Amino acid sequence: MSVLASSMAVASSMTGVTCDGTAVHGRFESAAGGGTYQAVTFDAKAVPAGSRVVVLESTHRDGTEIELRLHGLQPDRTFGAHVHQKPCGTKPADSGAHYQDVVDPKQPSSDPEYANPDNEVWLDFTTDGRGNGSATSSVDFFFRAGEARSVVIHEHATETGPGHAGMAGARLACVNVPFG
């Protein structure tokens, strides 16, 4: 698997602002193999082994921006995606709960006061006819060291109502990202 995970400095020629960040490039591998991979799929129909993922993180004075790009997924489908607390493993639940800037004392969180796109990183996207999709999220917080470790792709768009806020169905795939 070709993987690049590196810290980078991103300079904007328009604003002259320098941003620090992370870039991860990977290919999804089947979690059934039991190995440790940069990116794993738990559903080969929705996220086939060999499909590609890029996650870019940039931080600046006002907060954090995350960009997610995917290639080769199931075409014409809407997925949910969020930053999770733990690294990917061989089981979907290994990545833990969503990262929250202000942590809901009741976990798993489904209270819209905590489970919302201002307090979490939501990266929902819809793939095109070729299975390519992307999303960007800008938040006004920074990740706490070691507490944001992956991006999980979910089976449907993120719900927002009370009792269901932040829910996006089964975990279909996961990519390890050294945020922060």
UniProtKB/TrEMBL annotation:
Gene3D superfamilies linked: Superoxide dismutase, copper/zinc binding domain
One Gene Ontology term of the molecular function aspect: metal ion binding
Highest rank taxon of the organism: Bacteria
Region (Disordered): 81-118
InterPro entries: SOD-like_Cu/Zn_dom_sf, SOD_Cu_Zn_dom
GO biological process: superoxide metabolic process
Positions of the Superoxide dismutase copper/zinc binding domain: 55-176
Residue ranges the record marks as coiled coil: none
Cited Pfam families: Sod_Cu (PF00080)
Assigned protein family: Belongs to the Cu-Zn superoxide dismutase family.
Protein name: Superoxide dismutase family protein
Organism this protein belongs to: Streptomyces morookaense (Streptoverticillium morookaense)
